[in-house]
Automatic annotation (TrEMBL):
GO terms for cellular component: endoplasmic reticulum membrane; nucleus. It comes from Seriola dumerili (Greater amberjack). Residues 130-331 form the TLC domain. Keywords: DNA-binding, Endoplasmic reticulum, Homeobox, Lipid biosynthesis, Lipid metabolism, Membrane, Nucleus, Transferase, Transmembrane, Transmembrane helix. The keyword Nucleus applies. This is Ceramide synthase 6.
Length: 394
């Protein structure tokens, strides 16, 4: 174990040339980031999760009730032991062959069975009330941490001159403000990483998981090798747009459509300008070029910048989805009626996936005779109704 730890904490990987861990030990004159400081983030992440539960129960829920957001979930499927067994043990999306077999076994028409599976899938989705509470929690945290970051950073020299991130590096003392900022951000993203498995399941689950892992890795890397100055800039820049998207979601759940559209437009402008403009010009410029000129590259420097570039690729992907959604709404001439958080099924990675599947069949559809003989072309092998505007999100 000692050998593995010595290999992992190799000074030639983590630190610039001619710098050792002994040089960065805390003294009476100066305090530097220590790897063991990050252990505090694990119990704090659990505390944040518990605070979230209390917040959602006693603050967000009453606010939702005040906005007349109901706790009622989607319509429940009628109890049926055979279909329930297929749903839980075999598939939630029966194909055409299985649908026809179930139709003969139960003497139900295929459309009714399709509707049963759709309603049963929707049963597992949280109510609008639960979604509102989740968004209100995230909005509150992002607003607090962004406000704290701005108030803290406006007093620092590296906000106005990014070269200050690298002067006298890595012998830059750790201040109480930076330590608090880092530990709180790391704890929050750890709580998001694990609560992602219990929160509303979204179509971009893997992308968000990758985002959380990259964020946690960046925070950890930048703290351990004392790149905390530029790390604080990255965190504050990212928190700004997150405040607006959560506010837009809350407006959407409260059915304040005009406010939702306005907030989403503000989010889109801020997201694209900050992630595709400010981030590469301000952040990547200083981490790739200014640091190269002042400090020079070393192994963990390369890893840190690769993670920042990975984050930029994610920014580009999400910006593409936002622009594509907006352009499609404009091209269809539905801007006035456009709900930016209910996008079409092609774009629905999850800017926000909050609609239930449509449960009502088109009135012109035929029933048992046309569906059981294999001639009905209006239902596919995935079991969705043609009339359903959105696919199942799970």
């Amino acid at each position: 174990m000692a050998g593995i730890l010595a290999w992992f904490w190799n000074e030639r990987f983590w630190l610039p040339h001619n710098v050792t861990w002994a040089d960065l030990k805390n003294t009476d004159e100066a305090t530097f980031p220590q790897a063991e400081d990050l252990y505090l983030a694990c119990p704090l992440a659990f505390c944040i999760f518990m605070i979230r539960l209390v917040f959602e129960r006693f603050i967000a829920r009453p606010c939702a009730m005040g906005l007349k957001i109901q706790a009622n979930g989607p319509q429940k499927a009628q109890p049926n032991a055979i279909l329930e067994k297929v749903f839980t043990a075999i598939t939630k999306h029966p194909d055409e062959k299985r649908l026809e077999g179930l139709s003969k076994q139960l003497d139900w028409d295929v459309r009714t069975i399709q509707r049963w599976f759709r309603q049963r899938r929707n049963q597992e989705k949280p109510s609008t009330l639960a979604r509102f509470c989740e968004s209100m929690w995230r909005f509150t945290f992002y607003l607090y941490i962004f406000t704290y970051g701005v108030r803290f950073l406006k007093k620092t020299p590296w906000l106005w001159n990014t070269k200050e991130c690298w002067y006298n590096y890595p012998y830059q003392p750790l201040t109480v403000d930076i330590h608090y900022y880092y530990i709180l951000e790391l704890s929050f993203y750890l709580s998001l990483l694990f609560s992602q498995f219990t929160d509303i399941r979204r179509k971009d689950f893997l992308i968000m998981f990758l985002h959380h892992v990259a964020t946690i890795s960046l925070i950890t890397f930048s703290y351990v090798n004392n790149m905390a100055r530029v790390g604080s800039l990255v965190m504050c820049l990212h928190d700004a747009a997150d405040v607006l998207i959560e506010a837009a979601k809350m407006a959407n759940y409260a059915k304040c459509q005009i406010l939702c559209n306005l907030l989403f437009a503000m989010f889109a402008i801020l997201f694209i300008s900050s992630r595709l403009g400010v981030y590469p010009v301000w952040i990547l410029n200083t981490t790739l070029f200014e640091s190269w000129e002042i400090v020079g590259p070393y192994p963990s420097w390369w890893v840190f910048n690769l993670l920042l570039i990975l984050l930029q690729l994610l920014h580009s992907f999400w910006s593409y989805l936002i622009v594509k959604t907006a352009c499609r709404a404009i091209s269809r001439g539905k801007v006035g009626k456009w709900n930016p958080l209910h996008v079409s099924k092609d774009d629905r990675s999850d800017i926000e996936s909050s609609s239930d599947e449509d449960d009502s069949p088109p009135p012109h559809q035929k029933h048992h005779n046309s569906t059981t003989n294999g001639t009905n072309k209006n239902h596919g092998t995935n079991g969705y109704l043609t009339g359903a505007p959105y696919p199942d999100e799970h």
